[in-house]
From TrEMBL:
This is Putative aldouronate transport system permease protein. It comes from Paenibacillus phyllosphaerae. CDD domains: TM_PBP2. PROSITE patterns: ABC_TM1 (PS50928). The keyword Transmembrane applies. The chain crosses the membrane at residues 32-53, 92-119, 131-150, 162-183, 204-229, 286-307. One of its GO terms (biological process) is transmembrane transport.
Length: 322
């Protein structure tokens, strides 16, 4: 008897689910929504990827031929001349090394120091946490200006120094707020258990908070790495006279300026008219910009897949509290 009642109940529940779901494949509205959603996501993917693919095609196309336009997804006259022109510069390899070093060191130091400060101001028993938080936030809206910043860097003795890339941005306020919000969402009972076991603040931070905060730290690390990798204006301000401290982005900017200067006496029409002569393989500012975009973007694109799962979780969880 009990088996019959159980079977009838299961059959009734199955009928109810089929009625609510509109059959095996869901209701007509669900199927329409799924179809529209898939079409929209495909269009969004195309719109997102097309500019990058087009830029890649231009960078791999003959420079003077690119002036004609009409290049979309595939180079019309394939060549590596643009990349050869960029990487034949004597300073590129050294500048790439400096860019990698400032990105790695700057990211590690910034994330660790920002996490320490965020943990400190997230503690309810820290008396000055509101005052310090407000002081940090004010720096997001008010700045001393370019000249006072330059004078400060000069007085600190960081002109023509590698550490000018690291120390001035060692605490990012935006990153600080994100990490603090994430830490405030951690279970307080875990931190209390660590204190009861005799752990100090730094031990609690290093062995409890940091491992639990890996998603938000990966998010902040990605933000910081992109900023460090793409930064070039600080090189121009503080280290432009020190070639061995130049970065890849700054050297690419100089290559683009040299390309613009070399084309100043020759219009795009002249370059196209002479496309069949010995200058057919010359570079143009248009092709150099495309090549620079690819060279600067590829390292970040290669790193992002390894941080994607942490990036999504860190943004959703770390942005809950303000």
């Amino acid at each position: 008897m009990a088996n019959i009642m159980t079977s009838n109940t299961a059959s009734t529940e199955g009928k109810k689910r089929r009625l609510r779901g509109g059959g095996r494949y869901g209701s007509l509205g669900d199927r329409v929504f799924d179809t529209c959603n898939i079409i929209f996501m495909l269009l969004l993917m195309v719109v997102t990827l097309y500019p990058f693919v087009n830029t890649l095609a231009v960078s791999l196309n003959n420079a003077t031929d690119s002036i004609r336009g009409g290049i979309y997804l595939w180079p019309r006259e394939f060549t590596l001349q643009n990349y050869s022109y960029v990487f034949n510069e004597a300073t590129i390899l050294g500048a790439t090394f400096i860019s990698i070093m400032r990105t790695v060191i700057g990211t590690i130091v910034t994330v660790f120091c920002s996490a320490m400060v965020a943990y400190t101001i997230s503690r309810p028993d820290f008396v000055l946490r509101k005052f310090i938080t407000i002081a940090f936030i004010l720096t997001m809206y008010f700045n001393g200006g370019l000249i006072p910043n330059f004078l400060l860097i000069r007085d600190l003795g960081m002109i023509n120094s590698f550490w000018v890339y690291i120390i001035p941005g060692i605490i990012g306020v935006f990153n600080l707020i994100i990490i603090r919000s994430f830490i405030e969402g951690l279970p307080e009972s875990i931190l209390e258990s660590a204190r009861i076991d005799g752990a100090g603040d730094f031990t609690t931070f290093a062995k409890i908070v940091l491992p639990l905060s890996l998603p938000v730290l990966a998010t902040v690390a990605l933000f910081t790495a992109v900023w460090q990798w793409n930064s070039w204006f600080d090189v121009f301000l503080y280290n432009s006279s020190e070639i061995k401290l130049s970065t890849l982005q700054y050297e690419l900017q100089k290559i683009l300026q040299n390309s613009n200067a070399s084309m100043s006496a020759k219009s795009a029409g002249d370059a196209f008219a002479n496309a069949d002569n010995a200058n057919a393989n010359m570079v143009t500012p248009f092709s150099i910009r495309a090549t620079m975009t690819i060279v600067a973007s590829v390292p970040i694109i290669l790193v992002y897949p390894f941080l994607q799962k942490y990036f999504v979780k860190g943004m959703t969880v770390g942005g809950v509290k303000g």
